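Re: the request from the purification team.
They wanted to know what the chain is likely to look like in 3D before they choose a buffer screen. I agreed to run a prediction and write the result into the notebook, where they can find it.
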Amino acid sequence: MSMHRREFLQVLAAAAAAGFALNSRELLAAQGGEKLYDIPRFGNVHFLHFTDCHAQLLPIWFREPNVNIGLGAASGQVPHLVGERLLKAFGIKPGSADAHAFTYLDFEQAAKTYGKVGGFAHLATLIKQLRAGRPNALVLDGGDTWQGSATALWTKGQDMVDACKALGVDVMTGHWEFTLGDKRVKEIIEKDFAGKVDFVAQNVKTADFGDAVFKPYALREMNGVKVAVIGQAFPYTPIANPRYMVPDWTFGIQDEEMQKVVNEARGAGAQVVVMLSHNGMDVDLKLASRVTGIDAILGGHTHDGVPQPVKVQNKGGVTLVTNAGSNGKFLGVLDFDVKGGKVSDFRYKLLPVFANLLPADREMAALIDRIRAPYQGKLEEKLAVSEGLLYRRGNFNGSWDQLILDAMMEVKGADLAFSPGFRWGTTILPGQAITFEHVMDQTAITYPMSTLTEMTGEQIKMILEDVCDNLFNPDPYYQQGGDMVRVGGLTYACDPNAKIGNRIQDMRLKGKPLDAGRTYKVAGWAPVAEGAQGEPIWEVVARWLRDKKTVTPRSLNTPRLIGVAGNPGLA
């Protein structure tokens, strides 16, 4: 019996939906993958935006969260939608390539089916392809680029600086970049970026006189239209990360100052104004309602892959708010049609970067090989094999975090352990070897010290309450960190809707209530205080993995949630 190609592709798509492992190229073709990156040019002003790549130069696996709770007015709204609810909101077909890109659904099978995502050599091919049809398009980097991998740490960000210059980045802002220290950041901008890349951040000032540390915006002309790209660095850098790394700089949201900068850019002739933001999407949505004159906010920080912009009404009109995911997994394409000195229409597409559909750019691939060559042996050291899926992303815990917690408690003999609620970090499939590079993907920071501290039950509760408020404060402007601190050994209940001081309840250690006055041994890592000492966390975890050789699936320690049943951000 003969079968036409169209019928064959239909069979492949049906088989994938039924759970069969298939050739990813063929399946992507079956779902129109051959046309995925064929986006007709629209208008005369074009932006290509990526963010939060966290120094991932090679294609990776990355699982999207199944817990991203929104409260109050944010409940059921973007970006607080997961799984089927996200698919329904954006009309995405279950079982499709887009469903895999934007949700956690059937992750293990879908990852095997569709292949890895991201990789700078593949991203470079996509950018070149899109730029060929979009003359003078600007490539915007939303930050969290110089941190997140072993090579980025060991080269002090130089690997990513070189890769981004080769990628053709025009404008960027920052967050984790600042954990390289103020002097290193300024060195890169003044030497590597001079005349090539604009580093913009209107909200970073000197602590003494309030002078601008960086250019507030870049003003460019594109196809006869003046455009301004205003930078907004992560406003809570000295709180979420060590203040001593940027001792003479102040940050903050500063929306009044933002309005002044928008007005200045408009006064300088900008017909299009976009904000390159590392606020996080909830903060951007609020800012868009308060500041006028911004045509679009191209956002990052919270790693939300949002297929279409949110249109936010304000006194001056409408501002589009987007967020472009993380780890090099997506590229946002924003086209404006500018007529009569203002935006008349737009088109937007958040493109998943499927490595199997985009051939590697030769020049970028060669650069990446050169960057990695001196470290290849160390990176590829096999520490153990994981029998379960290892991932990080989610409001309360991930299996990678659980592994880190388990390792710390066992190695340090702790009663309980804390691990930061970082959103970055790659994913490992069951049966895959855990290499030293994978461990560094979860831990590569400039303040990696592991600690063992004595804390009272009262202090433990205070820490949990404080971090929980950073996540669930009803005002986005007070949401100052990442996800909830990950907790090992201690069980607890959490009421996200309660007020600060009352969210954390029923804390128990080995089934017994935590005693407020008793002292406990608490393991942790990534202390933000200056002068902290301790073995780097990657050494602790690597030693534990070498001893285990095979790692069984992790049992996640997550809180018993109160008052959020049925929340669209909770699968």
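For the purification team: The chain has two domains: 50-62+117-369, 380-561.
Please add any questions underneath this entry.
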